[in-house]
Amino acid sequence: MRTNIIRHENMMVSYDVVNGWTVIEVDGEVDAHTAPVIREGVIKLLDEGHRHFVLDLGFVTFMDSMGLGMIVAITKRLRENEGALRIASASSRVLKIFDVSGMRRSYEILPSAAEATASAPLPGSLAHWPHPSSG
To answer: Can you give the pTM of this predicted structure?
Structure first.
């Protein structure tokens, strides 16, 4: 059952739990105004015991470097808690931010949330982040 956790004028965030993953679906703009709100929402879920996240960006209409910074901040927090993170459904525009920053190889990016949740999470999979353990 999908649960809304954030409503902002240009963005909404909801989550569902699938196969051990907390799938965070972001709908709208991810920028200087919304990125901190998303980060706090994910940290709240982490504080509630969620450890393994899929960030579904399929409905993101705009994302800037603040959005990438938010993802990096979340990743650091998840790594400290032996969590896992996968990115799903990112558009070519969003992927370009990962490419330009050199961070694309640091993340497991999958075409859909269904593919991202197909296998159960592995605790500690971010231990070598930002350098992937396999090429």
So the answer is: 0.91
